[in-house]
Amino acid sequence: MSARSDQTESQSVNAQEQMVAGSAWMTAGSIFSRILGAVYIIPWSIWFGSFFLQGNALYGKGYNIYSFFLIAAIAGVPSAIAKQVAHYNALNEYGISVRLYQRGLVIAVGTGVAIAALMYFGAGLFTGGDDNLIPVLHSLAWAILIIPTMSLTRGYFQGFQQMAPSAISQFVEQLARVAYMLITAFLIMKVLKGDWVTAVAQSTLAAAVGALCGLLILGVYYWRRRGHFQALVRHSNNALVVPANQLYREIVAQAVPFIVLGAGITIFQLIDQYTFAPIMHLAGNYSDTYLNDLFALFGVNANKIIMITISLASALAITVVPLLSEAYTRGNKREISGQLTNAFLMFEFVMIPSALGMSAVARPLNIVFYGHAQEALGASILAFSSYLSIILGLYTVVSALMQGISQNRRAVKYFLVGTVVKFVVQWPLVYVFGAFGPLMATGVGFLVTCYLIIHSLNVQFGIYYVTIAKQSNGILLSAIVTFVIARLVVWGGEALLGDGRMTSFVITAVAAVLGGGFYVYTMLHSRLADTIMGPRMAGLRRRLHIR
């Protein structure tokens, strides 16, 4: 009995170490990619000049539609592949994992071609009356031909707990995309004095350029590690015989829920995109240009920045799925419960201070990225969106947890309940609160979904709420002090230096260093970081000379 207990404890520790290591890679790749995806907006906005808000609104509308089509094209296959590969790897059936990847490629390529054709030739059906969207959707359709194969290969690596290829390819993809965007925007807007719609279309075409570069990086990694994969296949049990048709059924059965849940945030954004203007027209006599500006503020500008912190949750979610799948395959309920608890604590550990810190520096941060256009309203929306990001990040994590334990249908049902709630409260909240209404409706909808999922997880497996509450108190207290420090730096900095773009950058950087430094110090000094992130934090504490 003692030996079995030691083995279970060892597996739990190894799972936590894998989760932390995987999260580190995925977080790094995701964060750097998100930062690149947000920082480009600074020169981009300068070059677009007076057309910036209109151009950014067009860009955001195009990307919302593209994101939905992309999720349909990928069809949830990468996450499903990661989950099923981890499942068969846990059974030492690596040969079946390879066949899963091969069958998944067939599906990914087929759906990519079909969805890209629908988006390209049917672009006029999705514009909502804005014909400027047509060339943007044409540009984005090319990316859908490439990204399914790239995403599928990332899922294959993740199923083997190899997160580095995914993280590095993600960073290279974003780097190439941003480089192409900036080069074309500068040439069209500043050198050629061209049309802003053409510049936006080229900026969206950058998605295909980035995807091609990301796929090449993955190809290099696969080629270098092919010997390792072949060795695993040779030493497999080879006890299971799974027909090709069954593999396809497994992929599709796992993938469909990933489509709905993975598209959750995008679906809510599309609801905002197609309902905001009609509701506002009923609320008052507003011009389309003004409503486009408002949409850019809450639906694009703020969203682009908060996705940096939400990417922390996304990285964690991607890491948790294959680990939970392995524990579920072994039928280890205690391990599942422990991993659920660890996942929530890791989420709180990074998300709460990030969201509060971003809210504290909302005004100078908004000026750094978007200048002084509608700065007061933009800063208020960004601050509100920072708090909302906690709920969005939590949804990303809990939906992944449900998928990891094969509760896909239940997770989809709970998401649909949240979507109905979003629809119900959307009209009155937008009518009364204007640009804040869609954000409030999104928060309410996702909060309902998160509550239902967490309640279900607790009933089935048990979540150590006492452990979470005990650690949460320390996290929340340190995060609040971090917020206060950052806020004081902003107030003092703006009083002394003003609110120019460069001075706002300095103020934001100083606030982030001081506030973030305090949080890191208290987490390491209190040993809370060791409890949540594992024993590796002791080494970091020694290097920083923290006792």
Automatic annotation (TrEMBL):
<feature type="transmembrane region" description="Helical">
    <location>
        <begin position="65"/>
        <end position="83"/>
    </location>
</feature>
<keyword id="KW-1133">Transmembrane helix</keyword>
<dbReference type="InterPro" id="IPR050833">
    <property type="entry name" value="Poly_Biosynth_Transport"/>
</dbReference>
<dbReference type="InterPro" id="IPR024923">
    <property type="entry name" value="PG_synth_SpoVB"/>
</dbReference>
<dbReference type="Pfam" id="PF01943">
    <property type="entry name" value="Polysacc_synt"/>
</dbReference>
<feature type="transmembrane region" description="Helical">
    <location>
        <begin position="474"/>
        <end position="493"/>
    </location>
</feature>
<keyword id="KW-0812">Transmembrane</keyword>
<feature type="transmembrane region" description="Helical">
    <location>
        <begin position="305"/>
        <end position="328"/>
    </location>
</feature>
<dbReference type="GO" id="GO:0005886">
    <property type="term" value="C:plasma membrane"/>
</dbReference>
<keyword id="KW-1003">Cell membrane</keyword>
<feature type="transmembrane region" description="Helical">
    <location>
        <begin position="204"/>
        <end position="223"/>
    </location>
</feature>
<feature type="transmembrane region" description="Helical">
    <location>
        <begin position="505"/>
        <end position="524"/>
    </location>
</feature>
<feature type="transmembrane region" description="Helical">
    <location>
        <begin position="174"/>
        <end position="192"/>
    </location>
</feature>
<feature type="transmembrane region" description="Helical">
    <location>
        <begin position="414"/>
        <end position="434"/>
    </location>
</feature>
<feature type="transmembrane region" description="Helical">
    <location>
        <begin position="340"/>
        <end position="361"/>
    </location>
</feature>
<feature type="transmembrane region" description="Helical">
    <location>
        <begin position="251"/>
        <end position="271"/>
    </location>
</feature>
<keyword id="KW-0472">Membrane</keyword>
<feature type="transmembrane region" description="Helical">
    <location>
        <begin position="133"/>
        <end position="153"/>
    </location>
</feature>
<dbReference type="InterPro" id="IPR002797">
    <property type="entry name" value="Polysacc_synth"/>
</dbReference>
<feature type="transmembrane region" description="Helical">
    <location>
        <begin position="104"/>
        <end position="127"/>
    </location>
</feature>
<feature type="transmembrane region" description="Helical">
    <location>
        <begin position="35"/>
        <end position="53"/>
    </location>
</feature>
<protein>
    <submittedName>
        <fullName>Polysaccharide biosynthesis protein</fullName>
    </submittedName>
</protein>
<feature type="transmembrane region" description="Helical">
    <location>
        <begin position="381"/>
        <end position="402"/>
    </location>
</feature>
<feature type="transmembrane region" description="Helical">
    <location>
        <begin position="446"/>
        <end position="467"/>
    </location>
</feature>
